[in-house]
Model the fold of this input.
Amino acid sequence: MLKKYIYILTTLWVTSISAQTSATSPEFEAKAIGGKEQIDQVLQTQLTLPKTLLTGNFDTELTTFFDIDSAGKAVNIKVDGGTNNVLRNEIKRVFGFIKFNHTLRLPDESRPYFLMFKLSTDKYNKYFKQKNKFNLKKPLPADSSFIIYTKADKSPEFYKNGDEGLTEFILTTIEYPKLAIEKSVEGTVVVEFVVETNGYITGVTVKQPVGAGCTEEALRIIKLTKWQPAILNGKFVRYRTTYPFTFSLRNITKDNSSSNQFGQ
Done:
């Protein structure tokens, strides 16, 4: 009887430990730099699927397992779930646009990180409709190396009328946060981002924040922008750049928009 009792306790203990350290336990979920919003931004602007897959009205959940190297990139990616190899390979490709934080601090832990994706025809069609509204002016071959440059033969520019168009877009879209007005908060938010070869942006981070909602407003605006990509050696390349948003109370109009020019 005692042996049986000990056996039951041991079984329960092992089961409990296994549940706590399962492959998809929360502590092993990968944390992208920029959070889930960054992952959503990448999926919305970079995920590409063939029409033949979309006609099947797919609805699937994929679980990916991977390691993270010293640069924050996903390596040794394994995809579980789904039966379509095109979709599985595309998910692996999309990882090239995302960087992750190292969150596991267990020296003897050999389990990989994981990340789940829920994809469907309806969700993807929303992404596709958004991308279909924007076409590059001068299509060129795209560099596929995933290298991010900071110098090129031609830097990226706003897709509509360059710097002047970007300034006009910001001035007509931005709203000075009410909290910042109430607390008399001013300053310059500097955001960094990567202009991708299809003209959309990823990797948005804040280099210099300003409180009272100014940082959030700058992030909202920059994520709406579209660009003519940088060009290097006759190809579109990924390009990292920054942009400053200056919030000044002296230039607030009655409709809460800004009448001053934002820095370059």
User: Anything to note?
Assistant: The two ends are 79 Å apart (CA to CA).
